[in-house]
Amino acid sequence: MKNKKHGYFLPKTGLILITFLFCNLAEAQQLIEVSGIIKNTETQKGIDAVKVQIENTQDTVSTDQLGNFKIRTRVTIPFRLAINKDGFSHQTVEILSLSNKLTIGLNPQNTIIDDVVISASRVPEKVLRSPIAIEKIDIKTIRESPAASFYETLENVKGLQLLTSSLTLKIPNSRGFNSPNNFRFMQLVDGVDVQSATLGVPLGNAIGPTELDIQSMEVTPGAASALYGMNAINGLASLQTKDPFTSQGLSVYFRGGVNHVDNFNHKISSLGESAIRFAKAFNKNFAIKVNASYFSGTDWISDNHTDQNPNSFITANPNFSLANNPSEDLWNKYGDERNNRVAVKVDYNGKPTTFNVSRSGYFEKDLVSPEVKNIKFDAGLYYRFGDQWKASYVYRYGLLDGTFQRGNKIRLQNATVQNHKVELTGKELTFRAYVSIENTGDSYNLKPLADNLDLTNLSNNNWKNIFQTTLQNNINAGRGLNEAFILARQEADKNRVVPGTSAFEQLKNTIIGINNWDSANAGIAGAPATGGAKLEQKSRFYQGELTYDLSRFVKIFNLLAGIDYRLYSITPDGNNFVDFNRPVTERNIPLSNGTFGKDVIYQKYGAFAQITKLFFDDKLKLNAALRIDRNPEFEAKLNPRISIVYSPVNQHNFRASFQNGYRFPSLFEALSFVNNGNVRRVGGLSKVNDGLGYLENSYTLASIDRFTSAVNADVDGGKSQSQAAQDNQQLLTVANLQKLQPEKINSFEVGYKSVFFNNKLVLDWDFYYNIYEGFLGQVEVAVPKNSQVGSNTAILAMLDRSKQDRYRVYTNSNNRYKSYGTSLGIRYNVVRNYNVNANVSYNDLASNNTSDLFITAFNTPKWMVNVSVGNREIIRNIGFTIVARWQSNFAWESPLASGDIPAYYTIDAQATWKLPEIHANIKIGATNLLNRRYFQYAAGPEIGGLYYLAFTYDLKL
């Protein structure tokens, strides 16, 4: 306890001393004040949120709702004020004397010609001269968007998709290979990676900025791994929050709305969000910022009954016409998958016949509550040292409910992620260190929940025997095959718990509270009687990084260099993650101290250098970067990037780039060890395979399906099972899985960005060509118990589930995959404040002539189109925006569900009423205004219209 007290007392005492010393020093210096108003030269109205800065200092303020500002400084006259706001031309005002209140005019400029971005090269540069495709969404665009939240504005970005898993969970992706658990897209908030470590992805904006604190978003729709490493091979989103020195005051935000207005799969429901922000600079050196928000609502419902194992498949019953498919595997039903499929043998039409039958399972809507919430909180302390250095500490917390799709559906319930960040920034150097703490709370997995609800009633074998006997009896009684199947299922299911009953809720709550997914009724010794489904994952990851601009030492070119280190530490739970130093048979057994062993460690470190050089009167910009990353599980990998930007005049910019990138496997891809429905999901590292043999001693499940179907047909034709197995053994394919390696991408990109017609028209075009090697995916295999593949014993074991161990393995593809695409964006200021924005994107995957171990899951529509029309002030203080989106149909593939996704279009709209006299805004809007229901991926939720009213109060202090 002593140490903890000292650890608390010293920082607090230090802060008090620093504040005291500063205040005494400040009294010895003379403050001067400059005040004024900044107006729009066209409307002669005051402009809010204009940045006013004294040049070559950090003395900065922002205007209030009416355009007024006051800035205090100890700089002696004369000095210059730099005036900046997105959408207006830059202005510089020289202060020669202290006079009356200033009146400064800014000219509207509807162009990106002066926009500055950082993410593309990790240094400030004009967006027009960025070496790669990048989109910036500024605060003005966010405020004028009809999206229900600022984060959903990403859906309108050229070349970007935003998948909706829940109201609280949106996942971005670009340029193909889309997934609700997107390992290939990185998301930063003020430089911090906000991913959930064990889930491996950023959970949308669950731990990100609130509606009141977002300043801008920069999106790179393509590989960014040369500068950012790790998992940024499909894109990067960098979110920046407001500076407490320049954006001070008290702000509150309320949003109320409704969804499910058609009462289709849920009654009409309300949703609401509240947020508060407080920022205060006590002097020019010390500031604080606090944000908090709470959201609650009724989630979109996933209840699609598409059958992905139709009766025509060899894994069903293709030789029979059955109105009700007894081996169905529905998108949003769990417990009816292939591991719960049994072979039922009866005499039918005078001969032995084998039918494939699935257990009944449970629908997703009966396994999860649609009520969701998201709580966010962050607080920061900021201190400036002179005009060059700034230090800060920021704490960030997020709590989330929602439904997350990986290999199975996961219900996130009270899942939390916390960040602690310290940062020191100067003119040339940035040091950042942070820790991210993850706890999945009361979350659970729907697949083992459904499995164990059924298994608690009967084991698969006992259920099969009852079904088989009842089916035979009904066939003997002369009933038709369809009716006989219905009656057989009713008899086998008669004692299972039924949704909506107290017995169902009681058993469900018992199962989701147990972190052991095995069931005693599955024949697993020592397993719980009911089995479990709880997702209990706790982890931390630590990141340290340093970047240094060395340009002043080199002179002949600009040089930026950086290093970083990351360490993951996962608490083994004996279910999802285990201590691989323990024997295989003991990994799921707790030690005497209640733990499951030592923390699992996974780490990487890297360094990069970037050179930028201008030629020919700055018309040609050459940018070259080289990054090296090392993960102790793999060999070091080099990531080069080279780009050229040619600007014959300022308004016309041509670019070309090549970069090579790698992605190290995520924690789950590398180190998972979870038994789910008697199929163990395992990472691909060799140490996970030790003692199991799935890499070198297994058959692929796809070949087992073909083999089993052929053997059953021969047995029904009169052959013995052993003879039929020998005759069809050539259908079995030995997996021979390779040792897990990082994914690799070679990315080529060209583009053109320009402005025309006195900066009224902006044109942005790009084309990319990507080559993927060692693509990571999952393949299901079976390891014969106590025998080697190729032996007679192993061949026969593939016909008996009890004589094989099943694994779903993360591994690399054998094939190369080539994707390509193009996008075009246009922004046009028609007349005065009317703006039209449009973009179109095309993405495709080149076909391969050879099959691979697993499905590639490109999962991207070929065509996506966004069009918006708006006017920020169609009449005094009132503006509007209308956005239309359309995408073509495409095929979705994943281990959980596959199928066709129909084309759809939506219309969003908003109107905003500014009330500057009371420092407020009112916004009314709708997403999917026409309530045309659609879904974005197989097994995903069906999304309808959402209608809202938002109120923002913003008082500058």
Average pLDDT number: 91
Assign an overall shape: elongated
Q: What's the alpha carbon Rg, rounded to whole Å?
A: 30 Å
The biggest sheet, with number of strands, parallel, antiparallel or mixed sense and barrel status, is:
22 strands, antiparallel, barrel
Number of helices: 14
- By oligomeric state, this entry counts as single chain
In helices, the fraction of residues equals: 10-25%
Approximately what portion of the residues adopt beta-strand conformation?
Answer: 35-45%
Spans with pLDDT under 50 lasting ≥5 residues?
Answer: 1-28
Distance between the termini: 40 Å
Concise structural overview:
The chain is mostly beta strands and 957 residues long. The protein is 14% helix and 44% strand.
Overall description:
With 957 residues, the protein is mainly beta. 14% of the residues lie in helices and 44% in strands. The protein contains 14 helices and 52 strands. The chain has a 22-stranded antiparallel barrel. A five-stranded mixed beta sheet has the order 10-17-18-13-14. A hairpin with a 2-residue loop joins strand 37 and strand 38. Helix 6 runs antiparallel to helix 7 and helix 12 packs across helix 13. The longest helix has 26 residues. It is elongated and about 105 Å long. The two termini are 40 Å apart. The N terminus is likely disordered.
